[in-house]
Amino acid sequence: MNEEFLNTLGSIIGTATPLVIASLGETITERAGVVNLSLDGSLALAAVLGFAAAWTAQEAGVLDVPMQIALGIAVAMLVGALIATLIGFSSIKLRRDQVAVGFVLTLLAADLARFLGADFTRIPGPQITRFALPVLADLPILGPIFFQQNVLVYFSYILMFLIWFWLFRTKGGLSLRAIGERPEAAYARGAKVQRLRYWYTFLGGALVGLAGVAYSLNVKPGWSSPPAMQGDGWIALAIVIFGGWHPFRVVLGAWLFAALRAVSSNIQTNGLFIFGQEINFPFVLLNTLPWLLMILTLLIVSGGFTERLLQYMPRAVQHRMRAFLRSDPPKALGTRFEME
Amino acid sequence: MKDTKSLATQIAFLLIPVAISLAVAAILVTAVGRDPLEVVDAIWKGAFKDSRKLGGVVNFWIPLTLVSIGLVVTFRAGLWNIGVEGQMMMGALFASWGAQALLWDANMSPLLNLALIALSALGGMFWAFIVGALKIRLGVNEIFGGVALNALVNVISIYMISGPWQPRIGGSAQGTEPFPVPALLPEFSKSFPVNIFMIFLVFAAFVVVMIMLNATRWGLNLKAVGVNMRSALLLGVATERTSMSAFLVCGALAGIAGSYRVLFTFDNLRPLASGGIGFLGLLVVLLLSIRLLWVPLITFAFAAILTGSTRLQIAPSLKLDSSLAGVLQGMLVLFVILFQGVREVFFPKALSGDDEAIEDSVPSASSVVGQKR
Amino acid sequence: MASAMQIELRNIHKRFGPVQANQDISVTFPEGKIVGILGENGAGKSTLMKILSGFQPADQGEILIDGEVINYTGPTAAIANGIGMLQQDPLDVGAFTVLENFIYGGAEGITLGRAQAEATLDDLSARFGFELDPHQLIDNLLIAQRQQLEIVRLLALGVQTLILDEPTTGISAEQKIILFDALRKLARDEGMIILLVSHKLEDVIELCDEVMVLRAGVLVGDMEMPIADHNLTGTVIAETKQHLVTMMFGEELEAQSRDHYSLGKPVLEVDQLLVQDLRLDMQPISMSVRASEVIGLAGLDGSGQELFMRACARLGRVAGGDLRLNGEDVVGASYRQLFRRGCVFGAAGRLEEGLIAGLTLTEHTALVADDHLRIDWKSMAKRTASRIDQYRVKGRAADNVEQLSGGNQQRVLMGLLPDEPQLLILEQPTRGLDVDSARWIWTQLLQRCQSGTAIIFNSSDLEELVTYSDRVFVFYAGRVYPVPDVSQTSIDELGHLIGGEFQQA
Fold it and tell me: Is the pLDDT reported for residue B364 higher than 50?
C-alpha cells in the first residue's frame, strides 16, 4: 500500500488520541450515571495548567524531560478530575442539576484557561516524542498506522481494552454499569452507589485532563488563543452518545471524526484534485464537516430518524439494524440516587 | 421575628457566594502578580468613568438583556437553548445582508431600518427553527444541535467575510466593509453613544414576555411542557408547537440582539460578532433560576463587568487578559448555584414556603442526554 | 441447607411524615411456615417487610433472629443474616443478562466466573421448574421470570427467610402455580420461612399456613389457616374469607357489582389495526366500542394491551388498519386532535404522565380550560375550589399537585376530565389505590358511562376486570382473544387465559 497513505492514517490515529481519551473518560463517568458536560472547558484548562507545570519545571531545570512531562500530565489529570468531582459533588451532595453545573464549568474553565494561559501564549515547552514499538512497528500496514506513535497513543489502545474488560468481564464492571442503569438494584446488592459515582467521575475526569494535556504537549504543542481543542469537548460528548457508551464504538467514532478533519484540512492546504482536475470550491466551508457529521451521527442513533428509515426495511433486517444503530443511554444517567 | 431571621439567611446565602467568587478572583489576580484593588478600580472606571463609558455598558446590556429574556422563555419550556449564540450570529448575518443588499440613502424611511431589524429576527428564528426541528421531530438533543449550529454559523460568517462580502481593498478575514450609514442604527449623542429605540425595544420585550409568561395560556403551556412534556400532552397541550414557539421567540430576540452588534456596535460584520453574549445570557438566567423579573438588573451588572474589563488589557500597569470578566461571572453563577444547594441540603428550615413556590428549577439533566423514543 | 431460623419482631414503629406506617407491631415467624401478611394498599405491610429486609430502618423496635437481637442496616446485611426480599418490581438491572444479574452481588472476586455461575443458576432453576435463559436480557423478560430469577439469586446467597411483595400481581395462573409450588417446597423441605405480602385473600388462603392482618399500620389480628389442601370445602373457604375481610377492613364489605347500561352507537371502531413494536409480534386487532360500554383488557404486562391502548389514543405508532372515532377516520390524527373530540387517555403513572409536579391545582384547571389566550386566574381558582368540593379532594387550590396523596391525585385527575367525554382510555385506573379510593373512582367512571361515555381500560387486577367490564379482551404475546361471556368467567379462568391457555376456555 502507498506509504504516504499509511503515514496519513498513522497521523490520523495520532491526532485522534486526545479525542479518544476524552471520550473514553466521559464514557466511564456517564456509565456511572453522571454527565460531565464541562469537557470543552476542562480540556482547555487541563491543557494550560499541564503545559504551565511542565514548562515551569523546564525553565527551572529541576527535572529531566520525561519527568517534566510526567509532572505536566499529573497536574492536568488532577485538574480534570477536580472539575469532574465538583460536578459529582454538586449533584450527589448538593442536589444540583448536573447539566447546569457542567455548563457553567464549561464556560468558567475555558475563560480561566484563557486568563491563565495569556502568559504562555506561543512559547515552546517540553514535548512528548514518538517512539516506535519494537517488532510491532515493523508489521506491514499495521506498523506504520498504529505502532509508530507516542506513548499516549499506546496508552489509549490499552485504555480501550481495559475499559471494555472492566465493564463486561469483571464484577467491578457490573457494579459500574448497575449504578448508572439502576442504582436501587446496585444498592440492594451492597454497592456503595455514591462512593462509586464519585470515584468513576474522578477517574473519568482525570482522563479528560490527560486528553487536554495531550494537545498542549503533543498534538499542537504549547498554548494559543483560541485554543487548539476548542469545540473538541462537545465533539467528544457527541462521540460518547454515538458510541453507545461502548468503548470500542466510542474509539471508532473518535477516529472517524479525526479522519474527516484530516481530510478537510488536507484539502484546504493542498487543494482538491479529482482525476487530475483541480476543483475550485470555498474550502473554508469544509470546516463545517465535523459539525455536520456530529448532527448526522446523533440523528442516526437517536430514535426518530432511524425509526423512519427502518420502516422501509424488511422486518427481519429491522431488528438487527436497530440493534446496530440505536444507542440507549444508561437509564439513570443524570439522575440522583437517594436511599434512606 | 421569624421573618427577619429568614430574610437574614436569604441575604447571607446571596452574599456568601458573591464574597467567595470575589475572593477567589482576588487570589487569581494576586497569583499572576497584579493588585486586585487596581483591577477593581480599572473595571469600575472602564464601566462608569463618564457617560461614553456608560454608553458602552448599555451597548452590552441591550443584546445581553434581549437574549436573556429569550432564554427565560426556552428554559421555561425545559429547553437548553445553547444555540442562542448562533442564533445571534444568524441575525447578524441577515442584518448584514440587508444592510448591503439595499442601496441605502439618507432619505429612506426609518421603516426600512425597522424592516432590517425584523429581518434579523427572522434570521435568528430560522436558526432556532433548525435546532427545534432537530430536537422535536428527530430527537437530536438541543444542546448538541445548538453547539453544532453555533459552529456552523461561525464558519458561514467567516466564509462570507473572506468571500462574497470581502472588502474591495485589503480583503482579509477581519470584517466586511462598514455598512452604509443610513442602514445603521443612529447614536443618541456623541457623549452617550447608544440607540434609544433599542432600549425601548428591550423594555417592551421585557414587559410583553412577562405578561405572556404569567397571564396567558401560552405561558402556562410553556411551564407545563417544561416540567413534564408527557403529562402536558395528555392534558391536551400542543407540546410540539409549544416547544417550537419557545425556540422561535428566543431565536427572534437573539437575532435582534445580533443585529444590534453589527448595525450599531461594530458597523460591520466580523467573525464572532456575537461575542459570547448568548452564553453570558445563559449564565444570567441560570443565576436567576429562570426568574425574569431581575434579568435587566443582573444583565446590567454583567454588562458593566464585561465593558470595564476591556480596560484591563489597556491599563499599562495591569495588562491582564479580559477573560477575567468571564472568570468572575462564571464563578459567581457557579457559587450561587452551589450555595442554593448548601442552603437546601444543610439549612432546609431557612427555606420559606413562598420561596419554593417562586423558584423554578432548571430543566433536569435526565432529559438532556436521554433521547426521544 | 443450613439450619432453619426463627424471627421475631418486637414493637416496630415507623412513621413517614404525617403517616404512621407501622405502629407497635410485634410478631413471631417460626421456621418452615408460610405466613401471609395481609392488608389493603397502604396498610403498612410493605413497610414492615422493608424494615425486616433492611431496606428501611425502623424508628423504634427490635428484630430478633433465633432469640438474639440483630442490628443491621441495608439489604445486604439482612441477606447476610439470612433474610431476603423480592420486591414487587424486582430489583434487577434491565440492561444485564439473566446470568449477569445472577452473578452481580454474589461471591467476592474480580472476574465473573460465568461457567460456574451458569451451572448454579441452571441447577436452581431446574429444581423449581423455572425456565430461565441465562443469556436473555432482563428487559425482554416477563415479571414472572424476573421474580424467578430474584428467588434463585436470593437462594444462592443462602437466604433462609424469603419475603415476597405482592408476587401474584401481573402473572398468569400457570406462573402462579409454579411460584406457589416452589414456595411450598422451600418451606416444607428446607424449613425456610416464607412471608407472602398480599392484598389478595385467595392467594393467602391457597398458600399460607398462618396469616397476620394489618390495618392502617396496626396489627389487627392473626389466625392459623385451615389446612391448605385441595379438599377444602366451599363453606370453610367462605368463612375464612369473611373472617379475614372483617379483620382487613373492620367491617363487612358489600360485594362489588355494577349496573349495566343500554349501549349506544359505536364510538370507537377498530378495524384490523396493526401496532408495531420492537419485541412483540402484534397481530391486527379489530373491535368496536359502543357508547356506555366498558371494555376491559386483560393480559400480562407487555402482552400488547398497553401498545394497543396507546395506538387507539394515537400516542403510539400504527403500521396499518383503520381507526374511527364516531365514524370519523382518525388513524392519521394526533392525540391532541382526538382529545378535542372527547377522547382522553389516562396513564398508569399519575405523576409521570397525567399530572404535572410543580404546578398548582389551579394551574391544572387553567391548563384544561377553554382555549383563551388570557387566563383569568380568579375564576380559575374559583372553579378549582368547586371541583375540590365536588370530588372531595384533600388539598387546596394553591397546593402543588405532588403534595397530595396518590388517591387525591387520582381524584384531581378525575376532576380534570371533560364533563362528558366520548371515550376514556385508561391504563390501570386504580393501581396502587386502597379499596375505598378504587371504588370511588369506579363510581365516578360509571356515572360518566351512564351518560354515554365509552371506556377502555386495562388492569392486572383480574377481579376489577370481571367486575366492571361489559366485555373483556385477553392479550397474550400480541394476540387478542375475546372472552365470550364475562359474567360467566371466573377469576381463575381469566388467570389461565392471560397465560395463553385459550383452548381451556
Answer: no
List the domain boundaries for chain B: 35-319
Model confidence at C252, in pLDDT bands (50, 70, 90)? low
Which residue is closest to A121 within chain B, CA to CA? B321
Q: B20 CB near a chain A CB, below 8 Å?
A: no
Percentage of chain B modeled with pLDDT above 90: 63
Q: Which residue of A has its CA nearest to B321?
A: A115
Q: Is the dihedral of CA C30, C34, C39, C44 positive or negative?
A: positive
CATH topology of domain B35-319: ABC transporter involved in vitamin B12 uptake, BtuC (1.10.3470)
Q: What is the pLDDT confidence band of residue C323, given thresholds at 50, 70 and 90? A: very high
Residue C4 predicted with pLDDT over 80:
no
- Say if residue B366's pLDDT is above 70: no
Bridge partner residues of C34 (DSSP): C194
> Which residue carries 396496626 as its cell?
C218
pLDDT on residue B335: 95
Q: CA torsion A200→A203→A206→A211, rounded to 10°?
A: -90
Instruction: Indicate yes or no: CB of C356 within 8 angstroms of CB of B217.
Output: no
Q: Mean of the pLDDT values across residues B61-86? A: 97
Residues in B touching A305 (Cβ below 8 Å): 138-139
Q: Is C370 on the interface with B (CB under 8 A)?
A: no
| HEC assignment per residue over chain B | CHHHHHHHHHHHHHHHHHHHHHHHHHHHHHHCCCCHHHHHHHHHHHHHCCHHHHHHHHHHHHHHHHHHHHHHHHHHCCCCCCCHHHHHHHHHHHHHHHHHHCCCCCCCCHHHHHHHHHHHHHHHHHHHHHHHHHHHCCCCCHHHHHHHHHHHHHHHHHHHHHCCCCCCCCCCCCCCCCCCHHHCCCCCCCCCCCCHHHHHHHHHHHHHHHHHHHHEHHHHHHHHHHHCHHHHHHCCCCHHHHHHHHHHHHHHHHHHHHHHHHHHHCCCCCCCCCCCHHHHHHHHHHHCCCCCCCHHHHHHHHHHHHHHHHHHHHCCCCCCCCHHHHHHHHHHHHHHHHHHHHHHHHCHHHCCHHHHHHCCCCCCCHHHHCCCC
Chain C residue with minimal CA distance to B235?
A: C368
> Is CATH 1.20.140 what the domain over A3-325 is classified as, yes or no?
no
Grid cell, residue A109, equals 474553565
| pTM to 2 decimal places | 0.92
Work out the mean pLDDT of chain B and round it to a whole number.
Answer: 88
Chain A positions touching B32 (Cβ under 8 A) are: 116, 119
Name which of B176-180, B344-348, C392-396 the model is least confident about. Answer: B344-348
Average pLDDT of the residues in C227-234: 64
Which ranges of chain A have pLDDT less than 70?
1, 303-304, 315, 339-340
**pLDDT at residue C126, rounded to an integer:** 94
Count of alpha carbons within 13 angstroms of residue C196, beta-carbon side: 28
Q: What percent of chain C has pLDDT over 70?
A: 97
Residue ranges with strand state E in chain A: 272-274, 277-279
Q: Do the chains contact at B369 and A103, CB–CB below 8 Å?
A: no
* Domain layout of chain A by residue ranges: 3-325
Q: Are C439 and C430 in contact (CB under 8 A)?
A: no
CB A253 within 8 A of CB A161: no
Contact A152, A17 (CB under 8 A): yes
Q: Is the pLDDT of residue C313 over 90?
A: yes
